[in-house]
């Protein structure tokens, strides 16, 4: 399942895009934006943000969205470091992450807890804005040469 799943979900769509004339650089940029925007620490916002990035940077929207949806589990996982990192940047105590502590916090002061969660989310967004752009650049500079090689290999295999 591993190799065939990877080929079906990731490799084959990329090769199809390359055969349609989309440059490896554009695909690399779409992958980088899809991954990094896909981990934005506000659940439910990434589809709109990826759409905007695809329009602004003239990227292939289905490819960007595919990558965005594939990294969704990573978005949830990365909430854990983004929240405390954002709070660290602002010099505030991080929110408790255990279910019992969160429930107790909401029972004690519901609206105060909502405001705390809002602040923590805003801090996490700032943390993402600090790490996101360098990660986009890094992913682009890693993916572009690999995709150029894949294009070359694909064109020699078709001949």
Name the quaternary structure: single chain
Mean pLDDT level: 87
Radius of gyration: 19 Å
Specify the number of helices.
7
Largest sheet: none
Supply the number of structural domains.
1
Number of strands: 0
What coarse outline follows from CA principal-axis ratios? elongated
Q: What is the chain-wise order of helices and strands?
A: HHHHHHH
- How far apart are the termini? 29 Å
Q: Could you name the ranges where pLDDT drops below 50 across 5 or more consecutive residues? A: none
Would you kindly provide a written description of the structure presented here, covering whatever features stand out?
By secondary structure, this protein is mostly helical. The protein has seven helices and no strands. The chain has helices at residues 2-19, 24-38, 46-56, 61-70, 72-90, 99-108, 110-158. The model has no long low-confidence stretch (mean pLDDT 87).
